[in-house]
Design goal:
CATH topology of one domain: Rossmann fold
Bound molecules: adenosine-5'-triphosphate
Number of strands: 6
Strand order of the largest sheet: 3-2-4-1-5-6
Helix content: 40-55%
CATH class of one domain: Alpha Beta
Organism: Papaver somniferum
Strand content: 5-15%
Order of helices and strands: EHEEHEHHEHHHHHHEHH
Shape: globular
Radius of gyration: 22 Å
Keywords: ATP-binding, Cytokinin biosynthesis, Nucleotide-binding, Transferase
Largest sheet: 6 strands, parallel
Protein name: Adenylate isopentenyltransferase
GO molecular function, one term: ATP binding
Family: Belongs to the IPP transferase family.
């Protein structure tokens, strides 16, 4: 989606002491435009800095797969705890995140800037902002959620008390519309290099854990949606093993033998994906035993992986929304902004309309809310 140009005035932050210790938090399910809103807010309330609270984006690598905001879309706003840690070294715990985020906001406050926390991991947001984080919550970032998120509707004894003065914004999109949009977004991610990114990732993993040949999918960034889903594909069609495979990547062209041409002037990635989907990928499998059957299988396993990514992304969105509702129940004052019409317009390919509604319904309203919060 295009970045928004907004004509509202720039609300420069007053440098008074009582404005310190205030944090803006942008929440919402995956795909709802949190990154975009954080940039819109940061440019409206200058100087602001953004802190990531997505537990996959915190790690280095898999930028397309985990949907990290590209540098050219950051409008020069500093981003923290994004693309920073190596998950193969050790996995961050909510305690690690709490102290890292703490350090980061202190630095941001000391520069007299406004911290904008943005990301879909509500357990991280909770773990960072809650007054007390119990030691029973000391699970790894990607194993499971904090205690109270797991237990069934039992809000008793869970404190909604916060360590900072927070302004919570929630971008909400009606589920049927979000579902359709997420499916479209997965297709766009595949087109823009997700498959190539994953195949390179699997190739490196192979070198690391030799006996297994395929990554464990259990820790850190390996839990990102896309990695487990493509496991079967890369097991059956290992990226490092196949000569043709490497050739396709290095040439950027796909050499098809059965009459369909994969050279579409696009990138190597889209040609590879295209030729898999067209059923004409030349997969030798060592010894050149390719053939129609193998190509058919490749296409089938590929489409299954894409479907699984779509399905799991949607399920993630549902879980995220439930967690936000849970946080509201324990007393967090989370203000909901309805972006359904924005995404309806996106699905109708009406980008002018979607931009207009975004500006009016999401940006203008949240700027008003944040302004009031900062003036209080
Ligand atoms: P839990 O700890 O119960 O998983 P959470 O709120 O801490 O919940 P989420 O951020 O909802 O964690 O992420 C849960 C899972 O969703 C991750 O382990 C990962 O599989 C997937 N996921 C989350 N964010 C991303 C992302 N940006 N890209 C890909 N997959 C993601």
């Amino acid at each position: 989606m295009d970045t928004m140009k907004l004509n509202t005035t720039n609300h420069l932050l007053p440098h008074h002491h009582h404005h310190r210790e205030k944090i803006v938090v942008v929440m919402g399910a995956t795909g709802t435009g949190k990154s975009r809103l954080s940039i819109d807010l940061a440019t409206n309330f200058s100087p602001s800095e953004i802190i990531n609270s997505d537990k996959m984006q915190i790690y280095k690598g898999l930028s397309i797969t985990t949907n990290k905001i590209p540098v050219h879309e950051r409008s020069g706003i500093p981003h923290h705890l994004l693309d920073e840690f190596d998950s193969s070294e050790h996995e961050l715990t909510p305690f690690d995140y709490r102290s890292l985020a703490d350090e980061t906001v202190s630095e941001i406050f000391s520069r007299n800037c406004l911290p904008v926390l943005v990301g879909g991991s509500n357990s991280l947001i909770y773990g960072f902002l809650t007054k007390e984080l119990s030691s029973s919550d000391s699970l790894s970032l990607s194993s499971s959620s904090l205690d109270f998120f797991c237990s069934s509707a039992e809000e008793d004894g869970v404190s909604g008390e916060l360590r900072y003065d927070c302004c919570f914004l929630w971008i909400d999109v009606a589920l049927p519309v979000l579902k359709e949009y997420l499916s479209l977004r997965v297709d766009q991610m595949i087109d823009s290099g997700m498959f190539e990114e994953l195949s390179k990732f699997y190739e490196c993993q192979e070198e690391e854990d030799d006996e297994e040949r395929t990554p464990v999918c259990r820790t850190g960034i390996r839990k990102s949606i896309g990695v487990p889903e493509f496991k079967r594909f890369f097991k059956l069609f290992p990226p490092g093993e196949n000569n043709y495979w490497n050739q396709h990547y290095t040439n950027g062209n796909v050499l098809c033998t059965n009459g369909c041409i994969g050279t579409n002037g696009g990138t190597a990635v889209s040609s590879v994906v295209k030729s898999i989907r067209d059923g004409c990928f030349e997969c030798g499998g060592g010894g050149g035993g390719g053939g129609v059957e193998r190509r058919r299988e490749m296409k089938m396993v590929f489409e299954e992986a894409v479907e699984a990514v779509k399905c799991n992304t949607y399920e993630l969105a549902i879980r995220q929304i439930k967690k936000i509702e849970r946080l509201r129940l324990i007393g967090w004052n989370i203000q909901k902004l309805d972006a359904t019409e924005v995404f309806r317009a996106v699905l109708e390919s009406d980008s002018g309309k979607s931009s207009d509604i975004w500006d009016k319904e999401i940006v203008e309203k949240s700027v008003k809310i944040v302004k009031k919060f900062l003036d209080e």
